[in-house]
Amino acid sequence: MRPLFKLLMLFGMTAYLIFALFTFITREDTKQCRSLNIVIADSAQATLITAKDIDMMLRKANLYPIGRSMKDVDLIQIQNKLQRDPFIREAICMKTPGENVNVFVVQRLPLLRIIADNGEDYYVDSKGYPMAARGYEADLPVVTGQVTNTFVKKSLLPLGMLLSQDEFWNNQVMQIQVQPNQDIDLVLRVGNALVHLGKAENFDQKLNNLRAFYEKVLPNVGWNRYQAISVAYENQVIGIKQEP
Predict the structure, then answer these.
(1) Which terminus in the chain has less CB density within 10 A, N or C?
(2) Whole-angstrom Cα distance, residue 121 to residue 119?
(3) pLDDT at 192 (0 to 100)
């Protein structure tokens, strides 16, 4: 009897859930959408897309849900529209009781800002996906100089990832300068010295050597003693003193 009782209970619960779901769907189809709730993930890290942007995007595309019958709110169409925006990696939309539509947006988090000598101005994420700069600012290293899209993807993304994952360097590096010969220089927040990284290789070792120099040498001789510091060569840190 006990297995039969469990089976009947399971059948009853399943029937109830089906009935409740059917009732919910039927009820929401006959009423108008009352509210639109928009949540932006990682908004503390970057504000390249805002709830206001999404609101305006849906209005312009004639997909704004408020005031529409819930049955006419096409969630798939809304998601597809939002995910075509270069600053949005993923969008999830759902209807909830109370005639609400919830939109959850995952941003593409920029890794570097590219302002090249050829006039290109855009952000790039960790996968190399470009995002046109359009009025919002992110506190990121700015890449300048003789830089191409290929060089960014091949050589600068590894450096950008290394900087973003290290709290010390994430706070220190303001600018990455690419020279005509594709050597790399860094402009830091502390001190006046330009840092020569040299070729786009062995970034982790070069930054480790530079950090040791910053922690052990500069506090003793003064942060502004050098006009340039080179870690371009293996296991060497060369300081060029300021001219008197």
Answers:
(1) C
(2) 6
(3) 78
